[in-house]
Specification:
alpha+beta, Beta-Lactamase, Heat Shock Protein 90, 3 domains, 10 helices, 12 strands, elongated, HisK_dim/P_sf, transferase, kinase, histidine kinase, His_kinase_dom
């Protein structure tokens, strides 16, 4: 890691050099791509130009059949055909070739020299002969390109059908890869990038030396004083650094008082949070205990005034309320104990099957089917804690699910997490309690204790994970996501 200003500035310079190098490579690549594109475009253009000569020749040959290669008038007419065909194709030269006689016509109407160009390019005659021979042999358009150090020469030839034997039309174009406006812009851009690196290196070196000297002075002053009593630091003359020093000096003057005030506020906040938590729990416990006590009182009073049968019924009702109180206390203990999970390697298929089997009868009473599936063979977690959490989620799902629906329990290994999901087709908790859903005594049911989901959260957090609710139209999904532990 970079722990000093010097190393960071050097890293910045290295990154700049890397960025400039990448930009230079990109510019070269773009230039090469543009050159390739130019060559491709030129290749297409000379192909179309060759087709233009072919069409013009066919129109001419139909009017002058049969054609004779003897005499000068044919060469003059063919030259006129080539000249008119290439007039609208800048930079393209071409002609008509006969296998034995060689060149019958040549023209370069867009030549930018001092006068019209009428002679074949001598350096390219062998290539012109070869491309015409290839087109004649294949009886279809043939193309060829010669790549030189500063230019690429493109050739295309097309067979000419008619009474005159072994005739082909050919076109040629030169694409300059070095030179021109694009090449000059490339050199200018590379030069600017190089000068930028040099100038930046000099600037960073000066900045590094200056700031290192000032920071060394500040460091010496600060190391001789206690952090609670910052000294007054000297001004360096560097505008940005002086702003920091001024802020530090001002902070030093207020640090001691702020420290004391912060301690007092922290104590007040902690005390308030404890009181608020105690108040919420006390209110919840009082509410949950009041109802069973009221029921037991009513049953006991009725029993006193009734016969033996009524007394027995009252005792049964009182025992049921005592069980509710015992369940409430057990859940409160589960929330407050914060036991460290006893991690074990658990076969997930058998574990999920046991979870589902325990609730099949209760679900069947509402016509609800419970399924489970997992592709994970085993996971590492506390099976008792996780079973308690899943039991609470499944019980909630059975209560919330409509008659005839399904509940699906899954276990998946996604990236670095083990995820347990309980999916049902209910509407989910009311939106009004969604923000506090996993807090103790928060419930959307009149007969609920509001402790089930808080137990789920405690189990997830004890494993280093989270519990969350995901809702959509007609679906509710509770997830317990815990870090994947190697078996």
């Amino acid at each position: 890691m970079l722990h000093s200003l010097r190393s960071r500035l050097l890293a910045l310079l290295a990154l700049l050099v890397l960025a400039v190098s990448a930009a230079g490579i990109l510019m070269l690549d773009l230039y090469q791509q543009s050159t390739v594109a130019k060559v491709g475009q030129a290749n297409a253009e000379i192909g179309r130009a060759c087709d233009t000569i072919t069409m013009a020749y066919h129109a001419y040959s139909r009017q002058h059949e049969p054609l004779s290669l003897e005499g000068t008038h044919l060469r003059r007419d063919l030259t006129a055909i080539v000249l008119s065909s290439l007039r609208d194709w800048p930079g393209i030269e071409g002609g008509i070739w006969q296998a034995k006689a060689g060149s019958l016509a040549y023209a370069f109407p867009t030549y930018e020299g001092s006068g019209p160009k009428t002679d074949l390019p001598q350096a390219e005659i062998s290539r012109i002969r070869a491309i015409n021979k290839a087109a004649l042999r294949k009886q279809q358009q043939a193309s060829f390109q010669y790549v030189g150090s500063s230019q690429t020469v493109l050739f295309t030839a097309c067979p000419l059908l008619g009474s005159a034997p072994d005739l082909t039309a050919w076109t040629m174009m030169r694409v300059f890869t070095l030179g021109g406006q694009a090449y000059r812009q490339l050199l200018l851009g590379l030069g600017v990038l190089f000068l930028t690196v040099i100038f930046t290196a000099i600037l960073l070196a000066w900045l590094m030396i200056t700031w290192s000297r000032h920071i060394l002075i500040i460091e010496k002053i600060l190391t001789t004083h206690d952090i609670a009593e910052l000294p007054s630091l000297p001004i360096t003359g560097e505008l940005e650094l002086d702003r920091i020093i001024t802020a530090l000096n001002e902070a030093g003057r207020r640090l001691a008082a702020s420290h004391q005030q912060s301690k007092a506020l922290t104590q007040q906040i902690a005390s308030g949070q404890r009181l608020a938590a105690i108040g919420r729990i006390a209110a919840g416990v009082a509410h949950e205990i009041r109802n069973p006590i009221a029921v037991m009182q009513l049953k006991a009073e009725n029993a006193l005034a009734g016969n033996t049968e009524r007394k027995n019924q009252a005792l049964i009702a009182i025992l049921e309320q005592i069980k509710k109180l015992e369940l409430l206390l057990r859940r409160l203990l589960n929330i407050t104990e914060h036991n460290k999970p006893n991690l074990k390697t658990v076969a997930l298929g058998a574990f999920l099957e046991a979870c589902v089997t325990a609730h099949v009868k209760r679900a069947a009473a509402k016509g609800i089917l419970i399924h489970y599936h997992t592709h994970v063979k085993a996971g590492c977690f506390d099976p008792e804690q996780m079973r308690s959490a899943l039991d609470n989620l499944i019980l909630n799902a059975i209560v919330a699910s409509p008659v005839g629906s399904q509940i699906i329990i899954t276990a998946t290994h996604l990236e670095a997490n083990l995820i347990f999901s309980v999916n049902d087709q209910g509407l989910g908790p009311p939106p009004s309690i969604s923000e506090h859903l996993f807090e103790p005594f928060v419930t959307g049911r009149h007969d609920g204790t509001g402790l089930g989901l808080s137990i789920v959260r405690e189990v997830a957090e004890s494993h280093g994970g989270i519990a969350e609710l995901i809702t959509s139209t007609g679906k509710t999904c509770f997830k317990i996501t815990v870090p994947w532990q190697p078996s």
